[in-house]
Design brief:
The chain is an alpha+beta fold and 242 residues long. The chain has three helices and 15 strands.
Length: 242
């Protein structure tokens, strides 16, 4: 008996071993569903145009919607979609400049999660500015913040970037194809004076996730390889005996 070392044969061996070991086999990602990150307003707007998308501004000037607390709600300027903001402290929305500050004066916050008030609704585009607390000293790198994405058919789940002390940091994300976002979470150890000028758009209804595991975890890959080794060893012994 001859065992051919083709990619297809090896794939079958891995799959059989994974099933025997109780480990899920991760399918390749959907090539038509992708996540794109942007660090400038210009590149984000150009991408919106390229995808044929449009977004809306989030406003905090409706007294019935936007009140101090945690979470805080805002409303988009065109469709009136309610957007929810959850921080690690109570928040204070200011309508005139469309920004979120800590409710307690002269304090900061580090974490902010953005989602839609209706849990069955998704979005495909989001952008905002991150304004760190600055003491007026020399420009320095204050630290690193991370954005985590939650949604459907995402091929990337997070990105990290440095927060300078002398300027606001722009962040934008767009998904295409069948991918969509449920929420976007900002976290880190940099104290924020405020976040502002939120833009969000391309709303839809939440659908099934056909790519639930976009990136295998290292431990899963190790388990997969570990499960394959005994089966490969048995195949080699069987080949020698034949």
């Amino acid at each position: 008996m001859t065992v051919r070392s083709s990619g297809l044969k090896f794939g079958k061996v891995l799959a059989m071993s994974a099933l025997a070991a109780g480990v899920a086999v991760v399918a390749p990602g959907n090539a038509h569903a992708a996540v794109h990150f942007y660090t400038s307003q210009g590149s984000y707007q150009s991408a919106l145009t390229g995808f044929g998308y449009s977004d809306e501004n989030v406003l905090f000037n409706d007294a019935l919607v936007s009140m101090d607390g945690n979470p805080v709600n805002g409303k988009t300027n065109m469709t009136g979609t309610i957007v929810k903001f959850l921080g690690d402290v109570s928040l204070h929305p200011t309508g005139g400049s469309a920004r979120l500050e800590a409710q307690t004066p002269n304090t900061t916050y580090t974490d902010l999660t953005i989602s839609l008030f209706n849990p069955g609704t998704t979005f495909k585009a989001l952008a905002f500015n991150i304004n760190p607390f600055s003491d007026g000293g020399r420009p320095v790198n204050l630290g690193t913040d991370t954005i985590n994405l939650f949604g459907t058919n995402l091929d990337l789940l997070s990105t990290s970037f440095n927060i300078p002390s002398n300027a606001m940091t722009f962040f934008g994300v767009i998904t295409d194809g069948t991918s969509s976002l449920d929420k976007v979470a900002l976290s880190g150890d940099v104290g924020l004076q405020d976040t502002r000028q939120f833009e969000i758009g391309v709303f839809g209804e939440k659908g099934p996730d056909t790519n639930p595991n976009p990136t295998p975890e290292p431990c899963s890959m190790a388990l997969l390889a570990g499960g394959a080794l005994p089966l490969l060893s048995r195949l080699r012994r069987r080949n020698r005996q034949a």
